[in-house]
Design goal:
Bet_v_I_allergen, globular, Alpha-D-Glucose-1,6-Bisphosphate, Chain A, domain 4, Bet_v_I/MLP, alpha+beta
Length: 153
């Protein structure tokens, strides 16, 4: 049975700027979070459109994970939303299905936004793994991207 975990976070950067960093995550994430992401390599597609596939090599900061392959399943540019599925990697020994959807929502002013990140998942075993590590990793990642965007033009 599918379950879901959601993280919502208010950020102090323009929605379009944050969305741009998400779309360019293959180059941005390893640069600003090298202990979490050693590299992100495009296998197929441009990394921004449906069907794009990428291979992630995680750094030592990602406990118990060394790699994953993700496929983009849906993109809505207008609503700044992307859904992807992990199709290979250690996380699939914990979850049979791991499908995040990220949505960037413009804030009340031009220099703010909210991020909603919902992961649909099915545990691989009979017990549901704790969701706190997933939430904490997402919050840390989004805050790091925010910090990077606040210090760049």
């Amino acid at each position: 049975m599918a379950r879901a975990v959601t993280v919502e976070l208010d950020l102090r950067v323009p929605a379009q700027k944050f969305w741009g960093a998400i779309q360019d995550s293959a180059s941005v994430f390893p640069k600003i979070m090298p202990t979490q992401f050693k590299s992100i390599e495009m296998i197929e597609g441009d990394g921004k459109s449906v069907g794009s596939t990428r291979h992630i090599k995680y750094g030592e900061g990602m406990k118990m994970l060394t790699h994953a392959t993700e496929r983009i399943d849906a993109v809505d540019e207008t609503n700044m939303t992307v859904t992807y599925t992990v199709i290979e990697g250690e996380i699939l020994s914990i979850y049979k299905v791991f499908r995040p959807t990220l949505k960037v929502i413009p804030g009340a002013d031009a220099n703010s936004c909210s991020v909603s990140w919902t992961v649909e998942f099915e545990p691989a075993g009979n017990e549901t793994p704790p969701s706190d590590p997933i939430k904490e990793a997402a919050i840390s990642m989004f805050k790091t991207v925010e910090g990077y965007l606040l210090t760049t033009a």
